[in-house]
Amino acid sequence: MMYSYKELREQVWEANMQLPAQDLVIYTFGNVSGIDRANGIIAIKPSGVPYEDLKPEHMVLVDMDYNAVDSGGNPSSDTKTHVVLYKRFPEIGGVVHTHSTYATAWAQAQLPIPCLGTTHADYVHGDVPCTTVVTDEQISGDYEEETGNLIAESFSGLSAVDVPMVLVAAHGPFTWGETPEKAVHNSVILEELAKMASITLGINNAAARLDKTLIDKHFYRKHGDNAYYGQQ
Hints:
Number of domains: 1
Mean pLDDT: 96
Number of helices: 8
Helix content: 25-40%
Radius of gyration: 17 Å
Strand content: 5-15%
Number of strands: 6
CATH superfamily: Class II aldolase/adducin N-terminal domain
């Protein structure tokens, strides 16, 4: 889909404003981006600007080579990570990064979030993966781009559509979707799944992962060509 710069900025601004509204961020934590794939232009939150001060015209436009487009502001420091994801996952149209409490706690624990129940399976086809920890060499190189590469590498053998979220070890969560709004929706879901898993394992630290048959049933009744959940 092709957008005007104004339309793209407004869409991404509205998605960014959902992060504090959904209690996923505080102060300047986190960012949302969206892409106009027809023109190869990305809009993203400006770096270090509090949410209460954000306006649509503040959204920064960059191309797929990180060059500023029609904008004088500095884009989010995570912009290169977003761009890597757009390049690696051509089916996505929006990316979100937060430091939401429970999802970040799992990232700091450097563990995937196991699929322990059908609520999780309704939204994610299996565990929420966690990347490896970034190396000293990657840190001293292009850190944000390497963070995107870590995410992409963790999806070897996984579908970015069936698993629209990831934990970056020792850092925090990223989610994505067909649109910026859907990417924010997936961030809300991820935080809830992380919270449920934390509570479940606190009650029973030997709680078992869900059987694949039940995971498949719950996931595919809501997703894919044969889905039958909701109004068709």
